[in-house]
Design a protein that fits this description.
By secondary structure, the protein is of the alpha+beta class. The protein has a 4-stranded antiparallel beta sheet.
Length: 173
Amino acid sequence: MNTNERREVLRKKLSESKSPITGTALAQLLGVSRQVIVGDIGILRAMGTEVYATPQGYLIPNEKRTNHESVIATIACCHEKKDTAMELEIVIDNGGKIRDIIVEHPLYGEIRADLMISSRREISSFLERLENCGAGLLSIVTDGVHLHTIEVPNTEILKEIEKELMKKNILHK
């Protein structure tokens, strides 16, 4: 298969998937290296395809995964590394989904990373990778201050999440 055909298969596979797919799995499926997949993802993005790179793998948003009646909100948080699990669990346990993290870097400006965390299993996986990779949280450059884009079913749930984060001194006002 040629390059354009491979990219179309890649786009179709990601569009039809109900969950993220790792670069390694895509490389094996298409018989190329992971680096070729990274390049193909870059080209797909340049062509206008919205592709998220999450800790769980690559994902193209589709109608099956997006509830159009949900509320998208940005919350400002501030906490130490030890409180990361608590922060994520408050959002997830109240029915929210954590789409991303955003920090304001003093040199580069806004830095955003897709998270797409929607379950305790995904929280555990994220925290395990955090401990094993030797990297710090993005919020290390902002003394713990960061933003999350979250998706919730309604404004009442958003208010409950904010209330619980406030009680734990995580919500940054």
